[in-house]
Design brief:
About 15% of the residues lie in helices and about 40% in strands. With about 110 residues, it is an alpha+beta fold. Strands 1, 2, 3 and 4 form a four-stranded antiparallel β-sheet that branches.
């Protein structure tokens, strides 16, 4: 059995309404739900709704639903298909770094023989 790597992704679904006044009464018109990455706040949801539907409207956030999705992948496939972002080398405790062959050391620098 091969090893797997797991990761939980959180998304948010925002349901909002555009509110208008008709004959002195508030009339909400439910907008298409907006899916967003991460766990968003009411302020972030409001900004996203205004960006999508325009800043000149009056909006009400009706609900925000958080979705946690656990995903899994074979480690070998992940290593083969993923992009390397960075590599950090750390020497294990108890070892000393070896100097590369053919390079001068600081003790040799500046000495004439």
């Amino acid at each position: 059995m091969s090893k797997t790597i797991e990761r939980t992704f959180t998304t948010s679904t925002v349901v909002a309404s555009k509110v208008t006044v008709v004959k002195g009464k508030l009339v909400p018109a439910v907008l298409e739900p907006l899916d967003m990455d991460g766990k968003v706040s009411i302020a972030d949801a409001t900004k996203a709704i205004m960006k999508k539907y325009g800043k000149l409207g009056n909006y009400a956030i009706m609900s925000i639903t958080y979705h946690d999705t656990l995903r899994s992948m074979d480690v070998d496939k992940f290593v083969a298909d993923s992009k390397v972002i960075s590599v950090t080398d750390v020497l294990a405790e108890g070892f000393e770094a070896a100097e590369p062959e053919g390079e001068e050391t600081n003790s040799d620098a500046g000495q004439e023989g």
